[in-house]
Every structure is written in structure tokens, then in C-alpha cells.
Design a protein that fits this description.
alpha+beta; three-stranded mixed sheet
Length: about 110
């Protein structure tokens, strides 16, 4: 569910109850999503997942030579455009790269 900051201020305890029951609540300010209320368990899961992805990415690039890194161009480009390591495209690119599913890209 999405709510405005005004709604959040007026009924915050109700929205906390909703989150405790498993609903997601996104608070929007001036039409843009700014904050998501999540259960503590979900926050821990997301934080753990982010750490795992960072470790996988580090391992992936530390085991590659210069020519192999060139083959991972799509992963690098996606990362440069990503807002965070948990961005869906980044996750997909990392998983593809780990599976060896990359296209060779030649430097211009």
C-alpha cells in the first residue's frame, strides 16, 4: 500500500500494525516513494542478501583476468547505472555472469 506523508503522520500506529501483519507500506512525498516500512525480519533478510551479493560480486571480479573482465562488460555497465546493489538488473547480471552467460564486448 502507498500512503502520503500526511497519512503517515495521522495514522502511523495503524500502518505499523499493517506492517506487523505482513503488509508493505511505502510512504510518498510529493509523489515520489521515499520510505518503505518493513518488518525487522525483512530488513535483516534484505541486509543479508545485499552483503551476499557484494561478496559474490567481489569474488567474481577477483577471480577474473583483464580479458575475462572485458567479457563482463554488461555487468559493469549495469552496475554503473544501478541505484543499489539490490537493483533487479544488477542481481540478474551477477547471476548471468556467475553462470557464464555473458557476451563478449570489444573496446572501441
Amino acid at each position: 500500500m502507498e500512503i502520503t506523508t500526511r497519512e503517515a503522520r495521522a495514522h502511523f500506529s495503524n500502518y505499523l500494525d499493517d506492517v506487523e501483519q505482513g503488509k508493505s507500506v511505502t510512504i510518498r512525498r510529493r509523489g515520489h516513494a521515499k520510505v518503505a516500512l518493513v518488518k525487522e525480519e525483512e530488513l535483516e533478510r534484505l541486509t543479508s542478501y545485499e552483503s551476499t551479493l557484494k561478496a559474490k560480486l567481489f569474488d567474481l571480479f577477483m577471480t577474473k583476468g583483464p580479458n575475462e573482465i572485458n567479457e563482463l562488460h554488461d555487468v559493469l555497465c549495469t552496475l554503473m547505472d544501478a541505484d543499489s546493489i539490490t537493483d533487479k538488473d544488477v542481481i540478474t547480471s551477477i547471476e548471468d555472469a556467475e553462470a557464464g552467460d555473458t557476451e563478449t564486448w570489444e573496446m572501441p
